Structure formats: C-alpha cells, structure tokens
Amino acid sequence: MATQARVETELSRLLPEGTTPTERLLLTELRTGSTGRLILMALEGEDADLLAGASKQLAAWMRNSGAFHYVGNGEQSWTKEERERLFQHRYLLSPSVQESTFSQDHLRDSLEQRLSDLASPLSPMVKGLIPADPTGEFMKILQTWMTWTAPTRHQGVWFSSGLRRALLLAETKAAGFDMESQERIQGQIRDTLRRVAGAPTSVASVHLVMTGPSVIAVEMQQTIQDEAWRLSLWATLLVTTFLLVSYGSVSILVLSLVPLTSAIVAGIVAVDLAFGFIHGMTLAFGITLLGVVDDYPIHLFSHLTRESRAPAVMKEIWPTMRLGVVATALGFSALLLSGFPGLSQLGLFAMVGLFTAACVTRWVLPHLVPTGFQARREGLHVARLFDALTKARLVVPLVVVLAIGSVVWSDTPLWEQDIANLSPISTEKKVRDQALRNELGVPDVRDLIVVEGSSEEEVLQRSEAVALALDPFVAKGELGGYDLAARYLPSRKTQQLRQGALPDRETLERNLTSTLKGLPFKASLFQPFLDATGKAKTQEPVDSQTFRGTALGLKLDSLLFTREGRWVAVVPLRGVSDRRKFRELLTPWREQEVSYLDLKEESNRMVAAYRNEALGLLGWGGLSIGIVLLVGLRVPVIVLRVMLPIGSAMVVVAALLHALGERFSLFHIASFLLVIGLGL
Fold first, then answer.
1. What CA–CA distance (Å, rounded) separates 457 from 439?
2. Average pLDDT across the chain, whole number
3. Domain residues of the chain, as ranges?
C-alpha cells in the first residue's frame, strides 16, 4: 500500500483553502494565477544575429510544444484565424467607435492618414486593411491592447538595450506550483536551446537565463532537496557510527531500523488513505520528526544484560515508554486541527508513526534480538560528559535565565512579519529577476482591484466604471497603468451602444462619396467597408466564449473567471504611488462589490493568522502532554521535572536563533514540535 501511495510535489497542495473570500481569491491566484506561470527568459551572447535566430527557433518550438498558453518574443503571435476573428468583430471591440467616427470630416481625416501610412514603412501591413477598414479600427484595437512598452526589436524579436540579450516571455499551461511539470518544461527549454543553437561553438556563445516564480520555485526545491540529502547523509553516518561504537553489533544496528521503517510505512499509508495523497514535503519533514523513535530500540538494547531476556526487559520498561509515546503523540495531534493541509498531514503521519514504532518495539523487536546480547558499556563515553554537568547545577538555570533575558530585551523583532523574508531566495536571484522584469516591462504584481458580480455582464460593466475612475490617476502619473478584462471584452451594453453609433448603409455611402472627392481612392474600393458596417450593426455581441481557445481567450481567462458560483474580474495595477489613497478611493465602491487588494499586505496578514493558529496549537499540544504526564505520573512535582528540561531546551534554542538575527515564523513553530518529541 505504501508503494502505491500518491506522492504529490505541487506546492499548492500544501496551502489552506482560506477562511474569507479575500483569502480564497488570493490562494486561487497563487495556485492557478497567470503571474505564477510566467517564465522570463534571456539569451545572452555577443552575436545579436545569432541570438535573434536562436530566439525565433526556440519560440517556434515552444509554441508547437503544447505546453504553453502564450509565447512572446516580439514576433507576430496571432494566428491567421485569430486575426480574422478579431477583424470580424472590430466595430464591437474598438473603443473609438462613435457616431462622429463615420462623419464626413472624420472619414476624410482617416483616409488622409491611410495615404500617409501607404507612404510609410507600415505600407505592407495596412494596404490590405484599407478597403474594409479605412477608419483603422483594427489597428486601434491592437494599440489599445498594448498596455506596456515593448522592448527594443532586432530582426523582429525583442532585445535588451545594447543588443546583448534576446528576450522571451512565456506562460505555461501547468500551474506555477506544479513542480514536476515546471521542472520538466524548463529542462525541455534548455535541451531545445542546445539543439537550435547549432554547432558547439554557437552553443557556447548563447547563454540562457531564466527567471520567474516557477523557475525560482524549481531552483529552491532543488536546493532544499540537495541540502536535505546532504544533511540526512551526515546525520545517518553520525547515528550509525554512534550505534556501532555503543553496541558493537551490525545486527543490532539493523534491528534498530525496524521500528523507524515500520513507522514511515504506516505513516505513508495513513496519510494517503485520509487525504488521497501525501505531499513530498510532509514525507521529508515527517521522517525527520520520526527520528525520535530511534530512542525506542535504544531503550530496549541499553537495558539488556547477558542474563536478561529482551521480552521480559521490554515488559518492564514498557509503562514508561508507553507514557512517553502517548504524550508525544498527543502533542503532535494538535497539528490535525491546523488549517494548513501540510501541517494536518504531518500531524497524522507523526501520530501513526509513533504508535506503530512503539508497537513494533513492544511486540516484535524483542523476539528479534539475539539471545545474550549486552550493550558495550565501555563505548558509552558520552554519558560521562553529561554526568559531569550535574556538578555544575547552577549553569543550566543560569543559561535559561540569560536566554529569556536576551529575548525580552532584544531590539530584534520576535516575529517575521514580511512574507518576502521567509523565502530562501538569494539576493543574486532577486536582482536577476528584477532586471529581466524591467527589460521586458513585466512588473511584479502586488496591487489588484477585485470586481465581483452575479454575471459576466455585471462584472464587465462595473469594470468599465472602474476604468473611468482610474484613468485620471494614470494621466497624473499617480498610477503607472492597469489591465482589465473589459479592455479586451467590452460589456454587452457598450457593444450595443457602438452598434447604435454605426450609420445605416445609405448615410455611410453618402458620407463616403462626399469624402472621396479630391482623394486618389475609387469609391468601389470601399465596398467591403460598407458591407462590414452593415453586418456589424446587427451582429450578435461577443462574450468570453467567442474567443475561447485563442490567445485573447487565454488572456481573458486570467482576468475574468468564476469562483464559488460568482463572476470575478481582477484588475492588476502597475506603479501605485499611494496605496492608502487607492484604498480610500475604492472604499465607497464596496457596495458594488469592488475592492482593493494589496497582495503583499494580505499575504503577510494571512501568514500571521496561521502563525498565531500554530502557536495556539503548540500551546494545546503542550497542555495535552502535561495532562497525560499528570495522569501517568500522578505527582505534579515529577511532571514539572519532566517538562522543565523540554521547556528549557525550547527557550535556549529560541534565544540562540534570535541572537543570530532570526525572526520566528510558522516553520519555527512546527520545528519546536521536534524539540518536544526529542525531549520526551
């Protein structure tokens, strides 16, 4: 059953569901949002032409791989079918369509502009559009949708200034927290670049730089795995050496692994049955927690003599061991109540593992111990060191008092309040990420406006009202810009207003005939224009389904979606100069279900809430341990003597970390459980 258990590596499976609508929206964005799926790339080298060619070939492979929603490198990313679909609905989508658009004066200005375009480098692009779109609505749509300043182009692809880096931007279909898929995709990108770069000398002259949330997450996971493997290897060697020196028996060393192995297997099965999967992080940390069960066989082996028998010795020490097991397991049971699935899994894994290891040690291990085995007492020199500490009885209390004092009077904040500081990302990687974002013009989204409603139409209308309120801030430079679904998909109401602005065929034909006087265009050239406006006047308004499966549809999916049966539109903001001002601006809009969300502030608040929850669980776990010990030992003074070393250890460890500049977080609280388990 353990070998068939489903081990997940996607980090989002560790996240809670959220207790408020805001938390649920934030967690949804973290799990599936487009921001987490972005990969920013740069091809570095001295030969700009070589970099441009590599960029085109790499982008072509990525678009054909089926692994990406979007791949941008400066080339035309719209397919012929998508361009035709947009062109067909241009009069419903263009923000410049109004009654004056088709007046004689405006038509003349438009046609004169088309003449200028024909004499410019844009001629090949606009020549074929003029007969059906002399007012240039299609190009206006594309210009309106360009919400950011594109990088420099060389040979049709994006470059940094100086032409030393060819730039690419991609959005994967896989979620940013799907580590297995992201690692595979990033590996395929590297392999493909090695193929498309050509000869070995060319490969050496093209260096790939990647960043983005998913890239950093994969690098962090690899770093954590490498560190965990290295530390686990050293820990295993140390424990193995210690046991060999202590017992001088390889068979006993192997037997000491039986309870631990049984505990791990049982924990995996229990978590898989309860949750349907076990997360890799739960498995790794859970095995670390279950290291405490190594004490169980050591207790048995250390009490054996040549005259004693293992079953009899086990029966004698079992009451004390049982009390410690129950107390430790109850301490871990508090994790079952956590809102974090990862901590809940960890609590179940630890509890089942502890009881399994105890049962194996009690009823199985004694029958496997060789007859006449006795620990080599001469090998236990470590005990003498601890015996020496009893001669300095005041040292330990003094150290504990100093530890408490160092925490109380320290200027370093006790708790980490900034979620950014919880990440082990190096400064170098942060600088690399920011540099690529600046070159590509892709900001790290922190500020959002959230618009909710009962229907797609209601949300789009409210979004259009929000846009009117934001435009003055953009004009004054108080807001760098924003993006919203209504820019790409106007509400049905707005589309119908644009349809109403379209003139009838007779009026348009009369205005066009008058406009053409003195211009080198033939009236018959614009027959497609007359047909298109007539068709658009009765055209069915478009909605999100119209563009499903296209690049525009993918863009809309990231900005407009349903959640818990309601429609939600998110409006990412760029360059917010005064967050308090924006919060005050949108306060009156709450009745219309429009709210401002500072992702960093909300993330910090949510982490603090779960940290406080973990503190409470730690307290309840400690109380449960105390109650069990009181029931088992029945003498409060003895219970105090048992708990005092554990509490002292936690205080000293916490003070030492704090003195080294550490601020405590949810992860430290979970780690303190390990200290409790070891202490018992």
1. 36
2. 87
3. 1-32+248-378, 384-432+604-679, 443-497+535-592
